[in-house]
Specification:
The structure holds 2 protein chains of 2 kinds.
Chain A lengths: L11 E5 L2 E4 H22 L7 H21 L2 H24 L9 E6 L2 E6 L8 H23 L1 H5 L5 H10 L2 H48 L5 H31 L5 H4 L1
Antiparallel strand pairs in A: 1-2, 3-4
Helix pairs in contact in A: 1-3, 2-3, 3-8, 4-7, 4-8, 6-7, 7-8
Chain B lengths: L6 H41 L2 H29 L1
Helix pairs in contact in B: 1-2
Classes of the chains: A mainly alpha, B mainly alpha.
Chain lengths: 269, 79
């Protein structure tokens, strides 16, 4: 069988010095190159009355900016977050859809894998590599914290996680409030775990959906080659846009929540 | 558009926040249990007090996660 199931890890295609180029990396670089060229073209051909590609780009940008506004309700914040959120959205969408093009998974090099000669596909959807999605998730969550620190101030933001200030206040009060502050401290640690959970769930969701789609299409193409995979490919188109929306929307929510002022629980007790 | 955080527009944000919470819920429960449990186990092997620190870790993890979760959910219900 030529159509081998894609392995969990992206396979190396070639080595440039010490740097290993995997097939998923080729696909993500493709997306980067496409967006770079598109950006250069749009920059060169801007006119007051938009036509053609500029018209299309402007209408798409306006639509996405409208969605961002619906969550942030603040144009200044929207314009601040838009490059991050929109960039993630378009990158994920493009790499998901490019993974459905003919040639992905079927064009490849015959390489020795585990002592056997195997067809290693030249292209593999960029988001079917956990490294890629994890990198984006870490970037999104860490970015939200950086924005939060800039907006709220380091110590106020830091106190959300490590509640040292609450402990100091409770020591002055004495009695039961020390106990409450200790529990409060542990709860603050859980807040840190929830940030880790954000990264894990963001990255695993995107990776799982795209990788499962790739496996599904390969299995179906192996069973019946003609006609039957078509509705599933359509399904993958929808999954591609939904996952891109979910990822970018959640990033936007993290950014928005991190930059809104926090009210401490110590005040309410 | 000016800076306005009315309850009306907070609704969409809290809806998305709730969705995010639902998706990461499993990890939020599992990760602290593993973390505090392993710290307890490590301390047990250091001081040879077999089950006690591990049990303490599990108890800390469960109580703090429960408090965190009820607080978070109450916040969303209020909105």
């Amino acid at each position: 069988m030529i159509y081998a199931l894609p392995p969990l890890v992206a396979e190396p295609i070639l080595h440039i010095g010490n740097f290993t180029v995997t097939n998923a990396y080729i696909n993500s670089s493709l997306a980067v190159v496409v967006f770079f060229v598109l950006g250069l073209i749009l920059r060169k051909r801007t006119s007051l009355v938009p036509t053609g590609i500029q018209n299309f780009a402007e209408s798409v940008m306006e639509g996405v900016l409208g969605y961002v506004d619906q969550v942030t309700h603040n144009r200044k914040k929207s314009l601040q977050f838009f490059p991050i959120v929109g960039g993630l959205f378009f990158f994920i969408l493009f790499s998901n859809w490019v993974g459905l093009m003919p040639g992905t998974g079927s064009i490849g090099r015959w390489l020795m894998v585990h002592g056997e000669k195997e067809l290693v596909p030249l292209f593999r959807p960029a988001n079917s590599d956990l490294n890629m999605t994890l990198a984006m998730a870490v970037f999104a969550v860490v970015g939200s914290h950086i924005f939060g620190i800039i907006a709220i101030g380091f110590f106020k933001y830091f106190n959300k996680f490590i509640k040292l200030w609450d402990v100091v206040v409770s020591l002055k009060k004495g009695g039961v409030s020390i106990m409450v502050a200790c529990i409060e401290f542990a709860v603050g640690l859980i807040e840190i775990f929830s940030e880790i959970a954000k990264m894990v769930s963001l990255s695993l969701r995107l990776f799982g959906n795209i990788f499962a789609g790739e496996v599904l299409l390969t299995v179906l193409a192996g069973l019946i080659a003609y006609g039957v995979p078509l509705p599933f490919m359509f399904l993958e188109l929808i999954v591609g846009i939904i996952q891109a929306t979910v990822f970018s929307m959640l990033t936007l929510v993290y950014l928005t929540v991190a930059t809104t002022p926090i009210h401490s629980h110590a005040d309410s007790h | 558009m000016n800076e306005t955080q009315t309850p009306e527009n907070d609704k969409k944000l809290s809806k998305m926040g709730m969705l995010s919470l639902a998706w990461e819920l499993g990890y939020v429960i599992a990760l602290p249990l593993l973390f505090f449990g392993y710290i307890g186990k490590w301390m047990d092997s250091k001081f040879s007090t077999k089950p006690w620190f591990a049990l303490l870790g599990v108890v800390i993890a469960i109580t703090s996660t429960t408090i965190w979760l009820t607080r978070k959910i109450r916040e969303y219900i209020k909105k």
